Amino acid sequence: MIRFALRCGQGHEFEGWFRDNEDFADQAGRKLVACPFCESQDVSKALMTPSVSTGRQKEKIAMMMGEMHRQIAQEVKAAVKRLRDNADYVGDKFAEEARKIHFGETDPRAIYGEATPEEVAALEDDGVDVMPLPDMPEDHN
């Protein structure tokens, strides 16, 4: 696959992936390529520099991925903390409490706790929405 920089007659720039140059020419000629911004089918290839992988680029990508991973981990950690701060911990009674809330036997509220895989499957079979919380490193300290 080859990535082409494309431009429509209105000047919008975007990218497209094609098997080769002939594939782009064929699709563009049959008006199958359209601008995602204005839907114009007047699309041509724009100038683009070739993408050559170098050691420095790989290092930069690795650093960017590390930073993105760190940022996502922080966001997940914050989301789990907010959930725990605003929900009742019910321990190993999670399945029982979730079922009572679902069937209206107790007032609705946010809860979290532990459940076995079998309990989770049974809750899902009953139509109870459940979602596992990620296991955070501080949970083991």
What does this structure look like?
The chain has 141 residues and is of the alpha+beta class. The chain folds into 2 domains: 44 residues, no CATH class; 65 residues, no CATH class. It contains 4 helices and 5 strands, in the order ββαβαβαβα. The longest helix has 31 residues. It is elongated, with a radius of gyration of 26 Å. 8% of the residues are buried.
Brief overview:
The protein contains 4 helices and 5 strands. By secondary structure, the chain is α+β, with helices and mostly antiparallel strands. The protein has 2 domains: 2-45, no CATH class; 64-128, no CATH class.
Separation, N- and C-terminal Cα atoms = 47 Å
Count of individual beta strands: 5
Instruction: Sum up the overall morphology in one term.
Output: elongated
**Range of helix content:** 40-55%
Indicate the mean pLDDT: 88
Radius of gyration: 26 Å
DSSP strand (E) fraction? 15-25%
Total count of domains: 2
Largest sheet: 3 strands, antiparallel
Q: What is the ordering of alpha helices and beta strands?
A: EEHEHEHEH
Strand order of the largest sheet: 2-1-3
Spans with pLDDT under 50 lasting ≥5 residues?
none
Structural class: alpha+beta
Count, helices: 4
